[in-house]
Amino acid sequence: MSCAFNGTAGAPGNASSTMLEFRTESFNGYAVKYSPFFDSRLAVASSANFGLVGNGRLYILGLTPKGIVVENQYVGCPQLFSAAHDLLRFDTQDSLYDLAWSEVHENQVVVATGDGSIKLFDVALNEFPIQSWQEHKREVFAVHWNLVTKDTFCSSSWDGSIKIWSPQRADSLLTLPTHSCTYSAAFSPHSPSILSSVSSDSHFRLFDLRTPSSASNHLTLTIPLHRTPQGLGLNRLQQHPAVTPPSEALTHDWNKYRSSVVAVAGVDRYIRTFDIRAPGNGPLTIFVGHDYAVRKLAWSPHLSDVLLSGSYDMTCRAWTDGNSVKDERGDLMLGGFGEETGRMERHTEFVMGVDWCLFGAEEA
After folding, report:
1. Alpha-carbon span 197 to 204, nearest angstrom
2. How confident is the model at residue 174, as a pLDDT?
3. What's the chain's Rg over C-alpha atoms?
């Protein structure tokens, strides 16, 4: 499996003119994240045998003038460690499905594993994980750090729950039931108390931790993702195959500039954006183009209308939603279509992860 990184976005159908590539031999990448502290460091969570069975490996990679180099790598098979390229390898018994950098410690990264555990590594230490938690009953598929308070992170699992953790605590702080296989969970980048998720039941859920726990376990909003949109774009949308029956939602992300806008995607191949202030109106924008399920989404941290996606069709694509086009009265035109602005087709297997560098306006 290879990890490819663009320096600039290319035209649709063409790879970028600036491309770095690193091959994770014998392991298949599941997630990639740039460090929030260094523009030249990123982490990759990977699994043997496409994550179906076997070990996992966490790579810490450095971007250099000579290409991508391994700074550290942690491997999956207990009691076993060896030197490779003068670096230690460490084992985690099961596949790695996701990761998140700490927002307060430049060397710490948390990973989600297939055995239901969550592990915290310090990449400056050649030791086993500095912390490990085991509360989920099934595979952990997502971890996400709180970008506002920076002192907690969340995880979601196939066991139908979301948990909130502190690196300083041995047990979880809170458990939020979703009653459905939850592929993605994330804190809002605009509020420390807002948490969201998407699940196999084709619903987006919003939790507000400021509400009483007795009030539906902090659940304040659910959006059926396949509801037919209302508004001026309805006739056009009804003529398009993007109107599909409910299917599993695999990924979502919050817009970094518009605090009420989220993007969601999954098995049906389409990307939808929603405004949580008007959940009954259906999607603001639909992005059509991927040939297979969309596995990962990431809004740009630099441009409010730009979205990056990775799919099982082996492509990464950049899109614009035009900031949700408005009509002559200034109202949002619902049910419109986004535009593909770039495509990267260098991968030869499923694209499972995408991310943006915080320090460069066009680096992804």
Report:
1. 6
2. 97
3. 20
209 is written with which tokens?
């931790």
222 closest CA partner among 250, 240, 203, 239? 203
Distances (CA, A) of 30 to 121, 168, 209, 226: 17, 27, 29, 26
Q: Could you identify the residue written with the tokens 């953790």? A: 165
User: Cα separation of 24 and 139, whole Å?
Assistant: 22
Take residue 340 and report the two structure tokens written for it: 């593909």
CA gap 252, 159 in Å, rounded: 19
Provide block-wise average pLDDT over 10 residues at a time, the chain (364 residues).
42 53 86 94 89 87 82 49 37 88 95 96 84 96 97 97 97 96 98 97 96 89 82 50 79 97 96 94 91 97 95 96 63 70 92 91 56
Show Cβ contacts of residue 96 under 8 Å, excluding neighbours closer than 6 positions: 30, 31, 45, 46, 47, 56, 57, 58, 76, 111, 112, 113, 114
Residues 201, 46: Cα–Cα separation, whole Å:
26
Q: Are strands 336-337 and 285-287 parallel, antiparallel or unpaired?
A: parallel
Give the residue from 290, 288, 281, 174 showing the smallest Cα distance to 230. Answer: 281
b/e burial code for range 214-228 (CB count within 10 A of at least 16 → b): eeeebbeeebebbbe
Q: What is the pLDDT at residue 83?
A: 30
Helix, strand, coil % in the chain, rounded to nearest 5: 5, 45, 50
CA distance 332 to 288: 19
Q: Where are the alpha helices (DSSP H) in the chain?
A: 234-238
In angstroms, rounded to a whole number, what is the distance separating the alpha carbons of residues 314 and 87? Answer: 31
Q: How far apart are CA 271 and CA 338, in angstroms?
A: 9
